[in-house]
Amino acid sequence: SPSRHVTARVAPLGARLVLALVEDRTRERRVEAVRRDFVANVSHELKTPVGAIRLLADAVHDAAGDPDAVKRFSARMLTESDRLTRLVQQVIELSRLQGDDPLETPVPVSIAEVIRIAVDTSAIDAASKQISVVTSGTHDLDVLGNEEQVTAAVANLVANAVSYSEPGSTVLVSTKVDDQHVSISVVDQGIGIPADEIDRIFERFYRVDPARHRSTGGTGLGLSIVKHVAATHGGDVHVWSVEGQGSTFTLSLPRYLSVRESQEASR
Ligand code: ADP
């Protein structure tokens, strides 16, 4: 009968609608949980340097008659406030990145320019450790996405390579290209990452046992920014590392093809 026909057609549609709504709600709740976690983590991470600065200020105050102690405590205050500054910067960066979708209005982003800015950004830290940062490969390429985000990702990889390397070593930034992707590899001869921790380093605030190596004042947010940028650009990021020998991080992003190139490619 006609009415049965209608029911049969409506029911699966209704069921699908309900299912879609449930999925939507589940997703919403998951997003909300992640956000709550993030806020809790940020508050926790902020309390550590703020608490330390407070204690050190007290110590400086009490040590007024002892110039050596004042010097020592104030040096540590500087370190802690630098850490706090970096943390605040990276939290702002991360939340800004999460606000916009780079593929909504993608533009060609010059890899040469991105690498130049990334290398420049680490130049002072590299020079102070006599680390040479060298580049190789074809840089005259564009990826498709958001320039600020791609630059932030590559700059984080170069900054890490410099901070987890021994003085006098070399950091190499190289690019490779195929039809669809541009891969940017950052290779260091640094401390490497223990095999049992490598899966976790892209998590927010995760740092390889900070006691094991010299404190570098990192925040644990850099690689989560890289991972986020890779994901939102439809690319990915891989790490290969041997403890005590070095690490290679490879960020792969979709290539921008000019109209002419894509016409040639489809021929
Ligand atoms: P951080 O601010 O601590 O550098 P990241 O999220 O950038 O935070 O990195 C997370 C952790 O991964 C670092 O604390 C460090 O232990 C490890 N790591 C990242 N890059 C490297 C590298 N190039 N060599 C060795 N370890 C690294």
From TrEMBL:
Keywords noted in UniProt: ATP-binding, Cell membrane, Kinase, Membrane, Nucleotide-binding, Phosphoprotein, Transferase, Two-component regulatory system
Sample GO molecular function, one term: phosphoprotein phosphatase activity
EC number: 2.7.13.3
Cellular component terms per the entry's GO annotation: plasma membrane
Transport listed as a keyword: no
Main localization (coarse): membrane
Gene Ontology BP term (one): cellular response to phosphate starvation
Catalytic activity field: ATP + protein L-histidine = ADP + protein N-phospho-L-histidine
Localization of this protein: Cell membrane
Chain ranges of the Histidine kinase domain: 41-257
Presence of keyword Flavoprotein: no
Source taxon at top rank: Bacteria
Protein name: Sensor-like histidine kinase SenX3
Organism, scientific name: Nocardioides soli
